[in-house]
């Protein structure tokens, strides 16, 4: 990036509030002592029974999405901003998926948090909720910018300065500051939505990230676009 950003004094306290929310969330979610590990192209978080899935029945109220609300097919996408396999999915699948199906009105993608890898995961999930509420038309651009600059897992790469810089580039400085303040002010509300996404994932048998539900098919892990495309075509055809 060509410009170095310093954190304004008026944003230091809001980011500290976000950090506090992360610590509380971590105490709740990680108290079970389960340590995620890479498995089959995703980050595994435990073992769940296989259950029937239907992307038309996932919770959509209040959730970030791209595409037309009345698109024939809904795809639900669970991810963690620190997950390297999610980064791979963003690099190899999301671009052509959006071009071929979202931009043509055939698919709507619902974005679902499964923020379990560490403090930066929760921090970014909280901020993403604020982006969706304050600047929904810029949500995916912000989402992609975060993944484009993903660092090593739990290395502390999502610094306040980086977040402010990327958010300012995508949203504009004024809106970026509103997002940071909003994430702090509504951290409890946003955390409840994040927790609900994770609980829904567990009920549907999703054990890691990334995970897609395409029609009645659960697609775990970062798979080649050709396979995702085949699943989308089958769902659109009603198979």
Summarize the structure.
This protein is an alpha+beta fold and 239 residues long.
Please tell me about this protein's structure.
This protein is of the alpha+beta class and 239 residues long. The chain has helices spanning 9-29, 84-102, 119-134, 139-148, 160-171, 173-185, 187-203, 225-236; strands spanning 37-39, 42-44, 65-66, 73-79, 107-113, 208-209, 211-214, 217-220. The chain has one domain (9-236): Glutaredoxin (3-Layer(aba) Sandwich).
Labels describing this entry:
single chain, 239 residues, Glutaredoxin, 3-stranded antiparallel sheet, 8 helices, globular, disordered N terminus
Kindly give the count of domains.
1
Number of E-state strands: 8
- Uncertain stretches of 5 or more adjacent residues: 1-5, 23-40, 45-49
Q: Note the overall shape.
A: globular
Element order, helices and strands?
HEEEEHEHHHHHEEEH
Topology:
Layout: H1 9-29, E1 37-39, E2 42-44, E3 65-66, E4 73-79, H2 84-102, E5 107-113, H3 119-134, H4 139-148, H5 160-171, H6 173-185, H7 187-203, E6 208-209, E7 211-214, E8 217-220, H8 225-236
Parallel strand pairs: 4-5
Antiparallel strand pairs: 1-2, 2-6, 3-5, 4-7, 7-8
Helix pairs in contact: 1-3, 1-6, 3-4, 3-6, 3-7, 4-5, 5-6
């Amino acid at each position: 990036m060509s410009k170095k950003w310093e954190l304004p004094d008026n944003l230091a306290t809001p980011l500290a509030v976000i950090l506090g929310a992360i610590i509380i969330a971590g105490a709740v979610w990680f108290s079970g002592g389960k340590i995620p590990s890479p498995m089959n192209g995703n980050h595994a978080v435990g073992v769940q029974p296989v259950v029937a899935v239907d992307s038309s029945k996932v919770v959509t109220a209040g959730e970030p999405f791209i595409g037309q609300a009345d698109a024939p097919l809904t795809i639900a996408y669970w991810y963690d901003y620190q997950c390297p396999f999610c980064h791979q999915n963003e690099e190899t699948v999301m671009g052509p998926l959006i071009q071929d199906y979202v931009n043509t009105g055939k698919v709507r993608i619902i974005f679902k948090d499964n923020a379990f890898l560490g403090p930066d995961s929760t921090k970014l999930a909280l901020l993403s909720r604020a982006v969706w509420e304050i600047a929904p038309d810029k949500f995916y651009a912000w989402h992609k910018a975060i993944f484009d600059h993903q660092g090593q897992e739990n290395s502390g790469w999502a610094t306040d300065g980086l977040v402010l810089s990327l958010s300012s580039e995508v949203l504009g400085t004024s809106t970026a500051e509103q997002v940071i303040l909003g994430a702090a002010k509504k951290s409890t509300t946003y955390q409840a939505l994040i927790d609900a996404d994770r609980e829904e994932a567990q009920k549907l048998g999703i054990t890691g990230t990334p995970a897609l539900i395409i029609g009645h098919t659960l697609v775990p892990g970062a798979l080649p676009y050709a396979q995702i495309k085949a699943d989308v075509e089958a769902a659109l055809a009603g198979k």
